[in-house]
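Ticket #4471: structure output looks truncated?

Reporter: J.K.
Steps to reproduce: submitted the chain below (345 residues) through the standard prediction queue, then opened the result file.
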Amino acid sequence: MERRTIGAAALEVGAVGLGCMPMSWAYSTSEQVGEESLRTVHTALDRGMTLLDTADMYGPFTNELLLGRALKERRHDAFVSTKCGLLVGEQHIVANGRPAYVKRACDASLRRLQTDVIDLYQLHRADPEVPIEETWGAMAELVTAGKVRALGFCAVGARADHRNRGTGSSTGSSTGTGRGIHETTVRQLERVQQVFPVSGVQAELSVWSREALETLLPWCAARGVGFMAAMPLGNGYLSGTLTTGGGFEPDDVRARHPRFTAEMMAANQPVVAGLRRVAERHGGGVTPAQVALAWLLSLGRNVVPVPGTKKERWAVENGNAARLVLTPGDMAELGALPAAQGSWD
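Returned output as attached by the reporter:
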């Protein structure tokens, strides 16, 4: 698989990563089978999908424990990205950016992952009660101590944060609001960059969630910062495999997602139809999901999509997207797809 670099440290990863969260968290608990997930991790590594993305909050903790079983045998094949800064309670999730906690969290992640170093340690969410420079400084000390190779910043929650500040609408589109959604993230990045270099930024980006194109991706590109595209398949919708009105298990995040009501899934079918048209032109079994991932890969050499899956077959399909080359006509057609309806805004 094609290799790409993350950050000024030129850390190499496969062009398509593996998001491990669905193996333990947020998606269809009844389908979370540890042995199947382990096979998925091994298959991804065999195919050059070296970036394994996890977090201590996934489970919580069980996702890192699962990955640790694979890393015990395959550490030299993997690029390990995990996150700190969020605590999971019974009813809510809270940020904790206190320096002492960050250092304890890192040590705990190292134990669960069965490794002596984390390749990319990301701040999952800034703590509003702690100056971000203090949190980032503690993370930088972990690099000095040899426990972490590089630091990253996760902005996956930016859409929800923007909504909670009362600046979003109830049905906003997926385009045209990137500056508003990511303006806080960019300011935070500018601040932490003065403390220690940012190697990677992780944020939602897909053909139906393009806000990051306006300010966040250009910020990364201008500074040689890697961009890890989270939810590149729109929580599975862009694969074209979900049945409209099929429903989700109660603990599945999509059961509460405004884009996954039966009405909105039907309304957003033109997006999937556009992906399918491009896929059919390429033939050879190309799928809508592969077109969606190839679109991301075409945005820049610093972009690494990180589709999440617990299924071996989907990991294989996702990895094969790295071989798909879109034409200028394809990119123009995908760029003209309608905005998604029912967003978090």
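Triage note (M.O.): checked the attachment and the full token line is present. The CA atoms of residues 173 and 341 lie 6 Å apart.
Status: closed, working as intended.
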